[in-house]
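Usage example:
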Amino acid sequence: MGEHYRIAIVGSGPAGLSAAAHAAKLGLSHVLLEKTDHLSDTIHKYQKGKHVMATPSQLVLRADLEFEAGKRETVLGRWGSMAAAAGIAVRHHAEVRSITGTGDPIPGSVQAIISRKRDGSSETRELQRLAPPYRITLADGDSIIADTVVLAIGTQGNPNLMTCPGGDLPHVQYQLDDPGAYNDEHIFVIGGGDAGIENALGLAADAAHGNVVTIVNRSAEFSTAKDANVKALMAARDAGRITTMTGTTTRVIEPGWITLDTADGEVRARCDRIIARMGSAPPRAFVEACGVEFASSDRLAFPKLSATFESTAPGIHVVGALAGYPLIKHCMNQGHDVVEFINGNSALLPADEPILEARFAGLPGDRSVAEWLEFLRANVSILNEMSPLQMREFMLDSEARAYPAGTVIFERNAPGSSLFGIADGDVLVEIDPANPAVTVPLAAGTIFGEVGLISGRRRGATVRAGSDCIVEISRSAALKLMSAVPPAAREITRITTERSLLQIFKSGLTPADLVDVIAAARVETVRAGQAIIKEGETGDDIFIIRSGSMVVEKTIGGKPVFLSYVPAGSYSGEMAVIDGGPRTATVRAAVKSDVIRLPGEQFRALLAAKPGLLARLRDDMASRTRLNSFIESKKDSFGGVVEMYTGVANFLVDNGVGEATDVLLIDEKLCVGCDNCEKACADSHDGLSRLDREAGRTYAHLHVPTSCRHCEHPHCMADCPPNAIHRGPTGEVYIDDTCIGCGNCQRNCPYGVIRMDQVPPKKPWLLNWLLFGQGPGPGEPDRKWRYKHASKATEAPKKAIKCDMCTGQSGGPACVRACPTGAAIRVSPEQFLSVALLDRSDD
Amino acid sequence: MATRARSTGKAVAAAPRDIAHSGFLAHRGGRWRKVALGLSALAIAVYALTDPQPRPNGGTATGYLLGSVGAALILWLSLIGLRKRIITTRAYSLKGWTSAHVYLGLSLIVVATLHSGFQLGFNVHGLAYLLMMIVVLSGLYGIAVYATLPAQLSANRNEATQPQMLEALRALDRQLDTAAQPLDKAEAELVRLSLERCDVGGGLWSRLTGRYPRCGNARARAAVQAIVDDRLRRGTPDARLTQILFLLERKDAALAQARRHIGLKTRLELWLYVHVPATFALLAALLAHVLSVFLYW
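Running the assembly step on the lines above writes:
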């Protein structure tokens, strides 16, 4: 039997460390378990000298440890000395393998753990929870007993381990801190992701070190790595500095040797060191095995927690990033709070209380924060299932507002991806753009704005307040809500389906008409390139594109010809329903898309009942048929033109134009390479250019430079800890001042348009350069000049920089304005991927 | 969290912008071409319909009128250099400016010639006219270059950027360096020719003609080719030298691409080195011309 503690804290990041410091201050018996030999491994792994930011600035820090923005080394150094001074009992090299109760089985407390396999099948295991105290088993076989456990392990997870024989030998390592530390060694890097490639390149960078570096990848291609890394690797391979082995797995590791299975058979090679970078397993499986239940099976879901951070396993508390709070200050406050709660302080209000108070300030009805949260939870149907803690977190990302009757909440065609819930009163939706008097009321409890959220497109109708109070749910809060509360997700999907049908088909339909169709409707996710309709096949389902976009193609003269681009919010497949013939064209996804499939049978019944709808569909069909025959006629007379048109369209779709809202294109028949676009960009944005003209793909002299496409569902927004990326009033995706410089957006952008940089010093006035040669001249100053003129007093943090479409500049995008020849244009895909493209191919 | 921009829900119209996919010559359906033709026609009409005595020249009323128009045009045309570099936030189109610059600049030939009344001499006035014609003709050459070279530049680039082209050359140099390690001194000297005596850009003449007669890589390649052929004839092929030759050939191709790129960019820019200094000389001569007319006539 191991030692018995009141609190065991697992993980020594900001949350765990702060919890331990508070436990030490209160004199509670505690132990802090850290798997490495140093505290706060995640921050330890930041690159040298990285500026660690302290946001949100208005949040009061109530932890016992101090924390302010500064260099990684400074932050870690202070924590280290303060942890020692506080008398925290740390146990290093203590990797936790399992946490199980030692008490009696808790009646009725059974957890279903679902594990999914690669082939798509899943297995359900049931776990009977046992009462505390808990036994914590460590990797070295030791165990510890604790009354309560604080899980503060973050979301990084553990690296995937080498499972082949010899994988536990000491020369197998899972991290590379300093590539310069090794000389004259035969080193194998296992894993061809970004981490592996970067490590291999680092080891081979300096030939003077004399390392023989080999990178081993399981698949034939380095498909999970970034393009730039793969290119650098290929260059290093061609230069003979690195050997690459693809389609290869490790069989046996022995001291000094490695045996590999390659496509051509077994290879045994000298090997002094193995660096395994095979990704990491998210900590979810471990956490679930402790008896902690997650909110849903969604990849983004967090554990279910009470207001005191207690999980479904009594006595196990979850704080920090694993609980859904990725920012350091939140983590430290929670570490403090959770120890207070465990110590019996039930009256403690969370540190975010003042923020929430401010959020509800000025609203009618004198309620406390807790009452407000309960009021919203009870009144807005999709929030019903939320826990008080979830509601708190939810409100941090959302707004509560009261709109006087008649106020416009949003206008038609305004960009916006937030969702609205009506807590009280009602709203009026203007369904006829021509006549604002025609409205449909929405009552309290329901939601609106969901089309903007789901499709990423502009608002479809103007909405006015009938009266009273509404919550605005930000895009990120809405996505979190949908992953945390499956019934809310289902409800949002149902409402979206119903409303998009009403909006697309209009023709006097009412929700009552659609009941059968909606009951039979299914939401399907389509991969990029996958066809939902194939030419010549039979089928009469109709598809509504919920998010993403589609391209329509027809085979003419044995070759696929591009017919049209179908954005989200449109429908496809109506011809077969009306004329009953086989499909006349292929419709495939331009990017990963969600479609609503409406079965033909129910839809035909609807058509029979609603002649207005039939007439409308016939109109749409007639215009589509006209387009088809126009292109077919062109094909007969100018085959080459249509082929070029198809080629250009497909090229643009392949380069992400299908998910763009606004993309910079350069006609290289006009571009003289003066780079005035880049200079204009830099000069209108703090001296940093957000576009790289020369880089990027080109087809038929049409060039897509490295520049933001302002995607409908921006990849960069996916994982922004301070939630600093927004869509602005003219549709631009921009990053605000709260950026902490973590680089997630840069990694998540598939088009490489985000850069991390610090704002350069101010340049002398342009005329000083023109007349006296002072300063670096127009455009982005070079590194040397920036370094020489950098302010020595304060260190400028590196932040994420991207195109903001020149918002706030009345002239529109500077790159386009400043192009002397008209080569640069910024367009939306609908503007460009149209028949007008045929004219371009004409010359 | 922190300072979050609150969406107003208003449908803000995006700033108006030119999405017409047309070059500067066809800007707005050739609006400036029409203006320039109109201006020229007007100038000719004024010239033809007035009959100054004793004969047309710059000193008559018609002459002053045409001269003022011409001088104003020259001043305005020279401002494009500032317009290009001062990035303001209001709406403007540099493409529109270029279009106007081109067409109005060409109309200057008519306006200024009529202003002179075809009386030209070897004096400061004739100098101003000569400089103006140099500027206009170099500009005309610039239009021709802008119309033809970008497509070639794009085709030659083949999606590679200039830094990438140079990096490719450096990578080949590294490979050559590694591959040359086992060679004996005489052969290694040949590889050093390629590594050390190979100038990518070269002088202005080389850039314009695309001829690099002293190119170390070409010389190295010819010499190594001769050795490889010789060994092949004697039946003792040398794998190391064959590899070197292969690398030298690849470098040759990479050099050719980089040099074409640099040559095209040089040609796209070179005319500006005549056009812009001649403009400054013209402005000075114009000042002298105007001052001399009013002070000393």
